């Protein structure tokens, strides 16, 4: 006949010697001795079903998990640690020796989800989730999550250059509207944005803003020289 018993309210910093023996009315039998060492590594198992939700935002990733399946560990756990680092930027894997720093934060042990914020657009992150006690962190469950590829609005500069870029007059005073961009390049850009940026849960499809550029000035320029002067990082398409 076999059995299992749990010992509670023990000091995690102490060593315990545990003896088990059988006894009768005549007295105790020979004891089996074992030594219980302090829990120096914290949790011994990982959270389960760690899931990152991709393409939900340009600067954040939602992560969820289920608790560690060990009641004794859960009782003395302090919380979960969420660590993350970029492993792919755009279409390029981060090279050895050029890896960005790893960031982390903690949540209470009753919390089973987190939002990782302040991330870069179009970047894949390795995400680790582990339980921790006063003795340290346990092993991590690992997943990966991707931020959206593009912001909703993409700024640019352009000049009219038929038949490549043109506009239709829609009012008697000769003013142009964004909805009336014509020519070969606007249509090509629209298709490229749909294909390359794909869809982001936070804002849906991205679009090219033909009205205002990256400095909130007028996107349409009068000459090639003006366009070159305004080529800068604040314009997404340049």
UniProtKB/TrEMBL annotation:
The keyword Methyltransferase does not apply. Gene3D superfamilies: Immunoglobulins (2.60.40.10). Residues 46-153 form the Fibronectin type-III domain. InterPro entries: FN3_dom (IPR003961), FN3_sf (IPR036116), Ig-like_fold (IPR013783), Type-I_Cytokine_Rcpt (IPR050379). It comes from the Eukaryota. One of its GO terms (cellular component) is receptor complex. GO terms for molecular function: cytokine binding; cytokine receptor activity. The keyword Magnesium does not apply. PANTHER family: CYTOKINE RECEPTOR, FIBRONECTIN TYPE-III DOMAIN-CONTAINING PROTEIN. This is Fibronectin type-III domain-containing protein. It comes from Desmophyllum pertusum.
């Amino acid at each position: 006949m076999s059995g299992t018993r749990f010992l509670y309210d023990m000091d995690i910093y102490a060593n315990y010697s545990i003896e088990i023996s059988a006894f009768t009315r005549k007295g105790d039998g020979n004891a089996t001795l074992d030594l219980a060492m302090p829990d120096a590594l914290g949790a011994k198992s990982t959270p389960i079903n760690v899931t990152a939700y991709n393409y939900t935002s340009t600067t954040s990733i939602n992560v969820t998990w289920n608790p560690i399946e060990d009641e004794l560990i859960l009782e003395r756990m302090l919380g979960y640690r969420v660590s993350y680092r970029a492993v792919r930027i755009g279409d390029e894997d981060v090279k050895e020796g050029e890896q960005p720093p790893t960031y982390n934060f903690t949540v209470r042990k009753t919390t089973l989800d987190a939002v990782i914020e302040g991330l870069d657009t179009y970047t894949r992150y390795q995400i680790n989730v582990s339980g921790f006690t006063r003795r340290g962190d346990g092993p991590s469950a690992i997943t990966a999550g991707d931020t959206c590829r593009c912001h909703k609005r993409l700024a640019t500069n352009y000049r009219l250059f038929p038949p490549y870029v043109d506009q239709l007059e829609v009012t008697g005073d000769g003013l142009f509207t964004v909805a009336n961009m014509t020519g070969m390049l606007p249509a090509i850009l629209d298709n490229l944005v749909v294909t390359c940026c794909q869809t982001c849960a936070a804002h849906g499809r991205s679009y090219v803003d033909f009205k205002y550029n990256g400095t909130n000035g007028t996107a349409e320029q009068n000459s090639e020289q003006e366009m070159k002067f305004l080529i800068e990082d604040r314009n997404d398409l340049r």
